[in-house]
Specification:
single chain, alpha+beta, Immunoglobulin-like, 6-stranded mixed sheet, 4-stranded antiparallel sheet, 3 helices, 33% strand, binds calcium ion
């Protein structure tokens, strides 16, 4: 009986306790969620190909005025870039955003109307520019440390002909270099030597098929 009473108290308090700004990652369409690589580890995402475009959405289940940023910091700026950002109606008519690029941060600064509405507030476009790791931090109230960090890892593209889709046109590049043994940096047999060991063989083919029909934007 006592336990029930405590539960009722907890439920009664919940609506005020959970109001919070959160961030999520979607594909370039801004709609299809990109799930974490491991459901138990939030904000660490599966490997994406260089040139892949993603969207990062800032939303809130509380209608409290908010000031925050999405930034790529330090050397991570060599691997990814936040290219553009927009506000959604729930951020309010007076919502405000602007790009920031200084000696350490690259990204966008956001400010909602006072008060905003509950819902999606802002969206930013992210692009993987180089092979390596890149974190995007969500900062609040001018803090130096991010509230959370989205961790992206970029790998060689499988879109060899650069038409934003991995399909037969790209497979034909693998086929045309099949069993080649003299692939060299930086061309790597037009990218077909995906594991960069100098040849094009079944290991490269497997790395290729992992991304079959994926789109980069
Ligand atoms: Ca392609
Ligand atoms: Ca290879
Ligand atoms: Ca090999």
């Amino acid at each position: 009986m006592k336990r029930l009473a405590i539960l009722a108290l907890f439920l009664g308090m919940a609506p005020t306790a959970i109001g919070e700004v959160s961030v999520r990652v979607c594909l370039a369409d801004g709609n299809t969620p990109l799930e974490a690589a491991d459901p138990n580890i939030p904000f660490v995402y599966p490997e994406i190909m260089v040139r892949t475009k993603l969207t990062i959405i800032v939303s809130s289940d509380a209608n409290d005025y908010w000031v925050g940023d999405l930034f790529i910091a330090g050397q991570d700026r060599g691997y990814g870039v936040l290219t553009s950002a927009f506000s959604f109606p729930p951020a309010g008519k007076e919502a405000f955003l602007y790009p920031l690029e200084d000696g350490f941060y690259q990204g966008f600064c956001f400010e909602t109307d006072d008060p905003p509405d509950v819902g999606d507030w802002f969206i930013a476009d992210y692009r993987a520019t180089n092979i390596g790791d890149c974190n995007v931090g969500l900062y609040e109230w001018f803090s130096f440390d991010p509230k959370c960090e989205l961790s992206f890892s970029h790998v060689h593209t499988r879109d060899f002909n650069n038409d934003a889709k991995v399909d037969f046109a790209d497979f034909s590049v693998i086929a045309s270099y099949w069993e080649a043994v003299d692939c060299q940096e930086p061309d790597l047999c037009e990218g077909a030597d995906l594991d960069t060991d100098g040849d094009v063989d079944v290991d490269d083919l497997m790395l290729f098929t992992d991304y079959w029909l994926e789109r980069t934007e």
